[in-house]
Amino acid sequence: MERDDGRLFHVSTDAMSWVDWLTERDVPAEWSFSLPTRQAARVLWVAEAYEAALADPIVLQPPGPPNLEDFVEAAAKVKNAFAAGDDPALHLAAQDLARWAPSLLRLLNPPVTVDCRAAALRAVLDFPVVPPSYRQDMLACLGLSGQALPPEELCERALRLAVGIIDLLAPRAEALADQLEPDLPRYLRDGMLRRYLQQ
User: Fold this and answer.
1) 20 lies in a domain?
2) Where does the chain show beta strands of DSSP type E?
3) Is the pTM of this model over 0.70?
């Protein structure tokens, strides 16, 4: 679209059924690093029967679930890719690890809601409760550090991130048990997950 001053700007338009509109509010956003989201929308047309329900067309989406199993699996893939000398697979696994990390750290940090992908990244990088070197390790794993890292350094940073998060979760395993996958809180408590990452 074109503004009055001649500047162009992008507008996303969409059409969806009432059921789809409601369903979208129950599904975590894929881009949000597992954080809850709040996005403004302007409804251009709606059937008269639904107008009252859309008086405030803000789309609130819930956070993604904490996913300890996929997080640990990504750390294992980092180790396997490094051992095999498979640099592309190493980078992919490190990115997956960094994408799952906020789903776990969200449980330990003050709640935050985001409205775009960049805000989500800033929010997870600014979590106050994090392991040592968290910000640098997250940026390295996501490929956003601004420098090309040798494979051994990327592997080291990814595993440091993984072990650091496990160490933060372990003392709270009992309190978090109902939010994590079955059996994994026990493996957090007894140190098995940490030993697995370090073997």
Assistant:
1) no
2) 37-40, 58-61
3) yes
